[in-house]
Amino acid sequence: MLPTFPRIQQHRMEDNLAMVQQLAMRISPMLGMIARHNQFEGSGHAIERHDDTVSETEMASVTGEITFSRDMLLTDFTPAELLKRLAELAQQMARGTTENFLSEINRATAAVGNLVEGGGKPLSEDLLIETYSKMEHTFDANGQWQPPTLFTGGDTTAFQKIQSSASFQRRLGDVLRQKRDDFRRREADRVLAG
Questions:
Q1: What pLDDT is stored for residue 4 in this prediction?
Q2: Cα dihedral: 176, 178, 184, 188 (round 10)
Q3: Which residues are CB-neighbours of 86 under 8 A, at least 6 positions away?
Q4: Which own/partner pairs from 183-191 qualify as long-range (CB within 8 Å, at least 24 positions apart)?
Q5: To 10 degrees, what angle do helices 125-134 and 166-189 make?
């Protein structure tokens, strides 16, 4: 039996995991936009808001699996083969994480009454304006709008066409004027800790 080298195995495992995470972020770019932290115990977490409401979130498990045949020759296990298998794992992890993430956003959005249902109809100017109208928006110190990140399905042609129309820009400007006033009021009413 060949000896094992625990430190080398540990480094290889860490490198493989880092590669899976990088590949998953390429597959689903929004994963790179999500702040993360390690939670070493417990089965969920809670956010207590300024109005004393509490939002609880349970942990969600995302798994991926790759298998190797016992008949596989050691000479067949090349760096290219390893990368191919890690890419399969990354695909599974990206899909599972994205589904959980969007499900949680959908649940939270529905809970506060900000869900916009398209009813299976194609994207329209009215639907997009309704969406922007239900959102809380932020503005920088100069009053410039900080647009939210929107996740859309594959083809963004309709979305871009609507956003570039003069009618949409006018209506969005009306929404943002009201939202800028709301933002300023919220900022003026904030109670700072300390």
A1: 83
A2: -150
A3: 16, 19, 20, 23, 66
A4: 183/136, 183/137, 183/138, 183/139, 184/139, 186/136, 191/50
A5: 10
Question: What pLDDT is recorded for position 170?
Answer: 97
Instruction: Identify the CA nearest to 79 among candidates 71, 70, 87, 90.
Output: 87
pLDDT-derived band at 154 (thresholds 50, 70, 90) equals low
Take residue 176 and report the two structure tokens written for it. 């943002």
User: Domain ranges in the chain?
Assistant: 6-33+55-111, 125-189
Which residues pair with residue 139 across a beta bridge? 145
Residue 132 and residue 111 in contact, taking contact as beta carbons nearer than 8 Å: no
What secondary structure letter does DSSP report for 42?
Answer: S
Question: Could you read off the pLDDT of 102-145 as tens digits, one per residue?
Answer: 888 888 888 888 888 888 888 899 999 999 999 999 999 898 99
CA 147-148-152 angle, to 5 degrees, is 120
Decide if 55 contacts 108 (C-beta within 8 A): yes
DSSP letters, 97-117, are HHHHHHHHHHHHHHHTT----
Contact present, 88 and 19 (Cβ < 8 Å): no
